[in-house]
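Input chain follows. Return structure tokens only.
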Amino acid sequence: MFRILSEKIAAKVDRAAMKAGASAAQEVGRRLTAELDAAIAGAQSAAGKMGTLVQQAVQAAVDEALRTAVLNATRIHEEHLAQLALIDRTAQTAQDLDAVRLRVEQEMRRSGLTRITVPDPGSFNLVNPAEHEGSTKYEVLAPAYADSGSGRIVQRGEMRRLPSAPRTPVAEGGDAR
């Protein structure tokens, strides 16, 4: 928009210079410069108003997202406390450990928490990594836990490497001894 105005001004200045000489061209140039300055000021004012409106809209969206996040965090915290209360109540009143385990299983399912008991280096920390180097057999010492929805590991488990099975010597005829 400003480039078009500048080109128009330059064309008018050139025409005026040819018709009336240099003094008239200077007067036209001053008048056109004033018009251009007024147009620029108007455009800046409009841009400033638009910038303010955009800033207000963005701030309102940020405020709403923050409010929603705080409400969700509060709700999740209250659900977590309720789950702990149920587990504790079961632990305090149950006659056997199986009832407590059953309650924990129910709450884990409800929360979307999965217990992982199959050894996997991506989900477990290796205890004593120098022990039985080269072996590919593992034993889970403590389970890992993952979010069922995302698959993200919530708590890494622990595993240890087991000794490899001894190799059975093979006789020349191909039979194992």
